[in-house]
Amino acid sequence: DVTHGRILYLEDVHRSFDGFKAINGLSLDIAPGELRCIIGPNGAGKTTMMDIITGKTRPDKGTVFFGSTIDLLRHSEPEIAQLGIGRKFQKPTVFEQLTVFENLELALKTDKNVMPSMLHRLDSRQSDRLAEILHTIHLADSVNRLSGNLSHGQKQWLEIGMLLMQDPKLLLLDEPVAGMTDEETARTAELFLTLKGQHSLMVVEHDMSFIRTISEIVTVLCDGAVLAQGTLDEVQADERVIEVYLGR
Ligand code: ADP
């Protein structure tokens, strides 16, 4: 078993765009229940890496496994979502004209064209799960509020809640605290620490103080490969990391 019990396993992945090597020999793995932060300068390949994991982009070569048995390169983007990999883009995309509750309810439906009024009632297991998620995402007091009236941070939490309704094993999050107030950022750290253990998380972030509060291991991407990996203190003290952040 090449994946050594990892939830996510990438080995020597390559992807070029018109001859430009956006991903160039990327190897990386994530343990079950781990919360991994990914940092790296613009153009390092962070978005392309997430596109490859979620099946939005295909690598030219390399190995991408989910758990020890699932070869992600044999699955389509919707199949990969069904398998339990949830992705959140930087901007919140909640349904603003619906309530918090309706957004979470809708997240259970794979056919998003159906109106909330046409949804079947949740079964008791789903209702329990929804209530638990509302609490986790700090929106238990806002269940009947219109999502359009939520703050930016609350919308981000709601979208994370919508992903959680699908009970993903792995969550990929792109700059989750960008644009948040300090208090929202602190509560997002709390939220992530609650999720860790039950889910594996891969978080691309630039906010170093946020990373410090949530992460054990930080991976630094540069030029489409891993430049350094370790605690935030270790990678911040690494000469090569300092050079790519300050020297370019
Ligand atoms: P990051 O998210 O770390 O900023 P990206 O993965 O977005 O990095 O981009 C890595 C490099 O690949 C960039 O130089 C970018 O211009 C290039 N790239 C990404 N996607 C495409 C594409 N679809 N077509 C052409 N070039 C791309």
Automatic annotation (TrEMBL):
GO molecular function: ATP binding
Every ABC transporter domain range: 8-248
Name used for this protein in its record: ABC transporter ATP-binding protein
Keywords, comma-separated and alphabetical: ATP-binding, Cell membrane, Membrane, Nucleotide-binding, Transport
PANTHER family in the record: CONSERVED COMPONENT OF ABC TRANSPORTER FOR NATURAL AMINO ACIDS-RELATED, HIGH-AFFINITY BRANCHED-CHAIN AMINO ACID TRANSPORT ATP-BINDING PROTEIN
SUPFAM superfamilies: P-loop containing nucleoside triphosphate hydrolases (SSF52540)
CDD domains xrefs: ABC_Mj1267_LivG_branched
